[in-house]
Write a structure and sequence with these properties.
With 303 residues, this protein is an all-beta fold. It has no helices and 28 strands. It has a 4-stranded antiparallel sheet, with no helix packed on it. A 4-stranded antiparallel sheet has the order 5-6-7-8, with no helix packed on it. A hairpin with a 5-residue loop joins strand 17 and strand 18 (200-204). The protein is globular and about 55 Å long. The N and C termini lie close together (12 Å).
Length: 303
């Protein structure tokens, strides 16, 4: 730490609206045993931050009646922090994480699907938030088997939700029950994105990229790109991928690397598209694409 700066490593990111990016980070001066996360906002060039006493995993954004705007932050043991103009509120997802008897495991992702909040995780945990709190909606498929569960969840509405994860598992939720997909891969699947045209994109390890819908998948591949993909997003009608220090775009049935015009390698882990902008966030890098070019955003603690 120098000049009051505390360098950080970014863990996850999400764009809630145009020009507004939320980031989860971990200070480099701490050890991995420290239970802590730092939440940053970057809104039209201005930075804000808040600290939390849990291990942050993911975040999303929600609007509501009146002028409500809130960030929702997920901890791996089911901790929830709501950050809005009204202050910070804390919740706990009952049954999530390792701090219970006979746990199913950590939770991994929080997602706003058609105005409703969902959380997924290990053991095929899926929770939905209502006025009464967080409720499990995946009891029928829950398991305590090791190396099983969901890394990501997305949907177009409450009756069309996909969850993906370990060993190529894909599940579809129709609003009442879960259906196991006949997945064409056993590679871990890290990211799922439901596009506006009704199709679904899934990306994961060993270069796996799938496009289609339940039990109807086309695999997109490239001989030169067999590393792990960590995130997939649809922006301006095109599908973008992030992983292994590389950004790429799907062109037809091929995956093409993106030339950023930088004289160094970048870190990239998470993509988030919102209202005309595509964000890429890695351990140390923040990039934003406006449809014509990429711009680097420097974090004040990392320069």
């Amino acid at each position: 730490m120098t000049n009051g700066k505390v360098p950080v490593t970014f863990l996850n990111a999400y764009s809630g609206r145009k020009g507004a990016l939320g980031l989860l980070a971990f200070p480099d001066m701490l050890t991995r045993d420290d239970i802590f996360c730092r939440f940053f906002t970057y809104i039209e060039g201005n930075w804000g931050k808040a600290d939390f006493d849990f291990d942050g995993k993911a975040l999303t954004y929600k609007t509501g009646p009146g002028e409500y705007r809130g960030w929702w932050i997920l901890g791996k043991n089911g901790e929830i922090a709501e950050v809005s103009a009204q202050g910070v509120k804390r919740e706990q997802i009952s049954g999530a994480g390792l701090n219970i008897e006979q746990p199913y495991g950590y939770v991994e992702m929080i997602r706003n699907i058609a105005g409703e909040l969902y959380v997924c995780g290990y053991g095929r945990q899926v929770y939905k938030r209502s006025e009464d709190g967080w409720t499990s909606i995946s009891d029928e498929i829950l398991t305590r088997d090791s190396a099983t569960g969901f890394f990501d969840i997305d949907g177009s509405d409450p009756r069309h939700i996909y969850a993906v994860g370990w060993q190529g598992e894909i599940y579809f939720y129709d609003g009442n029950r879960w259906h196991k997909d006949d997945s064409p891969t056993n590679s871990h699947l890290a990211s799922v994105c439901c596009a506006e045209d009704g199709s679904v994109w899934i990306a994961g390890n060993k270069g796996v990229v799938l496009h289609g819908r339940f039990n109807q998948w086309t695999q997109i591949s490239s001989e030169d790109m067999t590393g792990n993909w960590y995130s997939v997003a649809v922006y301006d009608g095109k599908t973008y991928l992030a992983g292994n220090q590389q950004l790429a775009v799907v062109e037809g049935n091929e995956i093409q690397p993106i030339a950023l015009g930088l004289d160094r390698e970048i870190t990239t882990h998470k993509l988030s598209a919102k209202e005309g902008l595509l964000w890429s966030v890695g351990e140390k890098d923040i990039l934003v694409f406006d449809g014509t070019g990429w711009q680097e955003i420097a974090h004040p603690d990392n320069v």
